[in-house]
Design brief:
The protein contains 6 helices and 3 strands. The chain is of the alpha+beta class. 9% of the residues are buried.
């Protein structure tokens, strides 16, 4: 039995996440650039400000931008890949690579968990009872009752 079928039989449905800020879906991240070529931070700032649903500000650190977005709309991986495709040069130091990998994984996992249906907690046995009742199974015997017992 597929998991989605079990959830439907139990009467569960996946709730929409209207309160994105309250549940931790709004992320503030930092995008770091290489020093060369000069002026790329300002060009990236202009390019990213054109995206709806994305807040972009210059960071207090040099060669950095701060971005704020909902995980439902964007991910750091999506933004950085778009910048690389546009010709921007991002920082690739070991520390940045480690932080980047952790952020990519956590955002991907959070998006996957949001899209998956609710987990069954207490009603899992009822699901299997309903499935058993709705599907033919092997406990039916057409032999009359008087012929079933050996005497």
């Amino acid at each position: 039995m597929r998991r989605e079928t079990a959830y439907k039989l139990a009467g569960r449905r996946h709730e929409s996440h209207a309160g994105a800020g309250a549940s931790g879906l709004i992320k503030t991240r930092e995008i770091r650039f290489r020093p060369m070529p000069p002026g790329q931070v300002e060009r990236a700032l202009g390019a990213l400000r054109r995206l709806r649903g994305l807040k972009v500000e210059p960071s207090a650190r040099e060669l950095c931008l701060e971005v704020e977005y909902s995980v439902l709309d964007f991910s750091l991986e999506l933004l950085e890949n778009a910048l690389r495709d546009a010709g921007f040069h991002l920082d690739n130091s070991l520390y940045v690579k480690l932080v980047r990998a952790l952020v990519y994984f956590s955002e991907e996992t959070q998006r996957h968990n949001i899209e998956s249906p609710e987990r069954l907690i207490k009603q899992s046995n009822e699901v299997y009872i309903k499935v058993y009742d709705h599907h033919p199974h092997g406990d039916h015997d057409d032999t009359p009752v008087e012929l079933r017992d050996y005497k």
